[in-house]
Every structure is written in C-alpha cells, then in structure tokens.
## 1
Amino acid sequence: MTSGQIFLILLAMILFSTIYLTTYNSLFDQADIAYKGMYLLNGQKITDKYFQEIEANILGEIVLFDSLQHIYNGLSDTLTVSDIVYNINISTTPCTQSGADTTTVTPEFIRIDISMWAIHPGGDTLWIGMPEFPISKVFVDLYY
C-alpha cells in the first residue's frame, strides 16, 4: 500500500467517525427534547386534575365556593409520576370575571393559580407554570 492510499483510508475513518458522533449526538438531543415534552405534558395533566377536582367539589356541593380560598390558598403537594416527583403549589385570589385581582370581601369569582416544578433525570429543574406566570383558572360562584 502506498502512503496515499493509507492517507485516504485514515481520512475515510475520520469522516465516518465524525458522522457517527454527530448522528449519535443528534439522536440524544431529540430524545432529551421528547422526554422534557413528556414531563411538561404530565405536569399539565396534573394541573388539569386539580382543576377538575376543585370543579367537581363545587358542583357536587362537597366544598362551598366561599371556602375555596381557605382550603386551597397556600396548598402544597407532591405527586410522583414515572419516578419524577412533581412539587405543586396552589394559591387563590379573589378576582373579576376576566381574572384581574380584586379586593371584594365576598367575591363572585376566584382565580386559582397552580405552579409546579420537577427535577428530571438530567438534573435540570423543569417548571410547569412558574410562580410569576402560573397556570390559572377562574371559578365562578354559581349561587351568587
């Protein structure tokens, strides 16, 4: 073999290994994005679970509308889904129909804000509804 042929073989090996590493890194990045999306979706489903529970309690007259603020304001909970621990924080605020804060003593509307965080296996903290921008829903007093 001549030195030119050996050089071409080395060049081919370098090119193949570069393509292999780039493909592997791209697949790893795509898997990471997919898993983070799955964790976010789980967090949104957990949020929806709490909103449905509150709504069912109101409609079933298990919890009175006037006591929502006392029951759910400042509530913290944890829920484990697929070995990921979601830390949930719930707060309530009297509000207008559009969700703007109000200071009404007996409000007709109450906004419930949920924010949560989880640490995924990569070690990053994943926020679903940050404290400054929570996931919110306005509940109305049906018997007002």
## 2
Amino acid sequence: MRTKLRCARCDKSAVYLARASGEPLCLRCLEKSLVKSVRRVLGRYAKLAPGTPIVVVEPLIAKPWLCSSYKILLKAVRSHRNRIVMVGYGGECPAHDHIDRVIQLDREEILEACRLHNNQHDRAACLYRAEYLSGTMVAEKLGINTVLLMRPRDLCSLIGVVGIIAMSLSLAVESLPFRRTHIGIQVINPLYGVGSQDLIAHAFSLNLVKEDLSCDPTLDLEGLPGYTDIQSIYMHSSEMIYSSSEAVREIFDKMPGSRCPLCSTPTEEGGYCYICSSLLPLLKKLLDTAR
C-alpha cells in the first residue's frame, strides 16, 4: 500500500511537489510559499506604501494559471490595503470581485495591430509591449506610480532567452523584472519569483483553472523558432530558468547607448523604439473610449 506524502512544513497531506525545492507541500503551505515569493519581489522592487493604488495588467494571451495568480497577488498586497485598478479584456476570475476598478480594452484591435508586423519576434514583442504600455498609460492617466505585469519566472526567462538568441532586444526587454519609464512609473513582474507549474498546481487544487483561453500561435511566444527546444531544457532543469533570466538582466544592465524612454529597449537614434511607436496611437484611442 502506497504511503501518502506528508507536507514538509506542517506534516499534513501533501498535494504537490514544489518544482524548485522538491518539497512535498499541502495546499495551504503551497499558497503561503507563493504569496511569500510575490511579497519578496514586491519588497525588492516596489516598496509599496500602504493604501497606494496599483495598476495590474491582464495578459493578452491568458494562461491556465491566470486566476490563481490574481488570488496570490491579492493575498500578497492585502496587508497594505492597496487599491487595484485592472486593465482587462473581458475575462472573468473570482478574484475580480476584490478589484476596485476594471478598465476594459478591445483585445482584438490590439492583436490585429501586432499581426501587422512581418517579423515573428516583432509580433511577439508587440504582444507583451501592448500589455506594458497599456499599464503605464493607464497609470499616467490616473496618477498611479506602480504597474504590475503577470509573468511568472519561467515565462520571463523564455522571453529573454528567445529574444537574445534571435537578437530581438524589443522582445528580450520584456523579460526584465523591473523597469521605470521616463516619468517615473515603475513596472514590476511580481511573479518573477514564482514558476508557472507551481501556479497551475495551485489553480487545479482550488478549481481556479482558467478554461476560456485565447490562443494565437502567430503572436504567442510558443510559436517562435527554438521555443520548444528551450522549454524542454527548462523542464529538466529549474536552475536554468533562474540563471538564464538573471543573465539576460545583466546583459541589459551593462548595455551602453540610448534607450526608449517608455520601455527601455536600446535604440540607435534615441526616441521611442519602433514597437512603442507602432502601438501608441492605437492604445491612446482605446483608452480615450475605455469604460
């Protein structure tokens, strides 16, 4: 008869083997671990004052762990009583009931604008940049200083490595855990210390798996050359996820020259990068008519 695994932290029945540590964890300890990781990232980069508002941006291509990530984020900031404004595209999660305001944008118009780029890596960069710019533009409009993007550590690592291999700095820059715009808005990936597999395990345990997922292989990172090979390496080595994402961050930190004032992509002539320039008119129009 097989013996049930016990949680390494509280000795209750375990539901999951943590990806990074290999520890068996019960649902409560798994959730506490995820919340602690998010708080650690926010403490390192954001240092949020109690009660200050935050803009949270829903991913344009939703993943199964999305609703779980909202629950974790809300628990991580609850003690600070931060008000949350979400930039969304019509998706629904139970956690939305605890969000103060949702600003809806037209997902299809944004995706169509990204499809206009001929280069595959530019299309993927456009997808992630649209999330970034939507958040910073809403933050500027509402006088908010902090924007959060929902991207787990392994996704950030894949974005960075694929972008560096393809010499697409516009894509690779979207992997960074922290950026600041020229007007001082800070953009943070609070899930930078969390893996998507841990989030999916949490989502399944709480029946929070998001099933109405949007999918577009012409835009998503999964359709890019080399993605499958890199992901298969990550599946067997969690250390690669952490080391590669930190390597990409160091590459950008040491890169000389001018940067796009909006997204920090290195540019040859200064001013806005071409991805930001292509998106700004559309996003301004959408925000002017947003509910």
## 3
Amino acid sequence: MFEVDPDKPDIPALARIQLWMGIVCMIGSVVALLLAFSGYEWINEVLAFASAIGAFLIALLFVGQAKTLELQAVISARVKSRFAMEGTMAGLTAMANQSGERKLPVIPQKQTERVIKVPDKDAREQGVRLR
C-alpha cells in the first residue's frame, strides 16, 4: 500500500496505525465469513455474515483514511517548499528594490544551438548558404 520513496516525507504514524487496523479488520472479516460457513450450532449465520460485511467496510474506511493522511503529508511538504521558494524570491526582489534596481537575479543557462539537417538540393533551391 505504501511505497518507500526518498523524495516523499515520512509516513505519519497515525497513517501506519490505521493501515494495520484495516488489515486486522480484513482478517477479522475473513474469519467471520469462515465461521458463517462452518455450520457450528453455536454460531448464528446471519450475525456472522453481518459482522463479515461490517468488518470489511471498516477495513476499507481505515485503509482509505490511511492513504489520505499519507497524501496530506506529501501535499503539505510540497506547499511548504513552494511558499519557501516564493518567500526567497520576494526577499530577493525586496533587496533589489532597496538598491534602486528593479530586476530579478539572472540565472545563467546553457545556450544550445538547434541543428537542422536539410538536403543540399533543397538548400540550394531555397538559397541557403553553408557556413
């Protein structure tokens, strides 16, 4: 259910607890279903079926809540990093405004050239010269 990814923050403890409670409820659902089909006199089949269905629904609820809590931790980390970047850029802009300039810092990027291969015949017809 939960994958380990170093880019994601740790899974909250409450999410792990709810995941295991969901697994235990799923096991309980299977046990109740087996008891319903066992044929023992001391087991009420209707109650055993009802408890199997109820345990299955509770298991779905726990696992769904655990996954939601995990995703909330991921979204929270992403939002915090975005606000941190925006705050940094706002601080840089404020520093630039204090010095009288109104431009953001230039981030150097590698210049790449586009290479287009055109057959010689087509290039001569269009008037393109070789370098």
## 4
Amino acid sequence: MIIKPTIRAHIIWKLSEAEFYLRQLKHASKEIFGSIRPLDFGWTNADHQGKAQVFLFLFSAFLSPLRCVTFYIKKTCENQKPPSRWYKEQIKKAVKERSLLAAFCFLRDSDVHDQALSGTPGVRHKVDLSAQTATSEFTLNENTLLTIEALKKHRWAAELLAGDSVVAISESALAKLSDLVQEGIQAGLF
C-alpha cells in the first residue's frame, strides 16, 4: 500500500526544513563570531570571507523551503473548486502592510532568478558596542539589495531586510509564515 502524502504534511515538512536551516544559521553565526573578537572581523581576511560565504549559502538554503511553502499554499488555493481567493488576499495584504514575509519572497525569487545573494558582499558585518559586551552579527547589505529589480520597486522591503540581523529577520519571517499556515489550516484550505 502506498501512502499518498497530503499537501498539509508537505507544507509542515517544508516548514521543518526551514527551521533546520535557521538552526544552522544560528549555529554558523555563533561559530563565526564566537571565535573572533567583534572588531577583529575583516573582509580582507580570506577565512572571514569564507565564513561569510558559508553563512550566505545557509541563508539561501533557508529561503528555498520558506518560499516553497508559499508556492504550495498558492497552488492549493488555485486548485480548489471554485478557486480560493484567500492566498491572493494574503499576498495583497502582505505587500500593502509591508510585511517581512513579502520582502523574503521578493528576495528569494531574486536570489534564484537574478543571483541576488551572490553580490560581494551580500552581507555586512555589524558590531554593537552599546551592549554590555560587544557583539557581532551579519546583516544584509541594503546597497546590494537595492540593485535587485523587485526591491527597487519596493524599497521598503530592502529596508526591512537590512534592518536587523539575518538571524533575527529569518526568525521573524518563519514565525509569520507558520502563523499563515495555521490560519490556512484553520480555514480548512489544506
């Protein structure tokens, strides 16, 4: 007997995949900055550049299942008889409200189609000296983001994406998507 997976199970699987890559991002950030004093990080250091590249690879990997979930939701809504407008309304709402989730969708599509994250550097090193102990983290490079056509049209998305650490915005986007999935499940869509 072959068990056919449901779309809901696949959506949950992809959310779990995104959570996996988010954990990897957090681990990579701790590993990178745990061994380097905040002010000692340097883009001219080949080891530091390599670690930043690995971090971007993980971030790109995180974006993929996150966006897959939105595609599955869209397809599920379109395939209903009659097609559900719920997802289209969610998209309009996300753009109108300048949602971080919408910004992530723009970024992922641009990364896949326009190689958005392969710009050098796709991330910036940020040091927070106001904390009790100085901390380091990566933020997306707003100048690089503003070279992306979709983000030129939606400048607010570039500002949101560059406004906090990559880890923090990733956590927030995943939480928003998880909430959206729960809303769709409660509405009986999948």
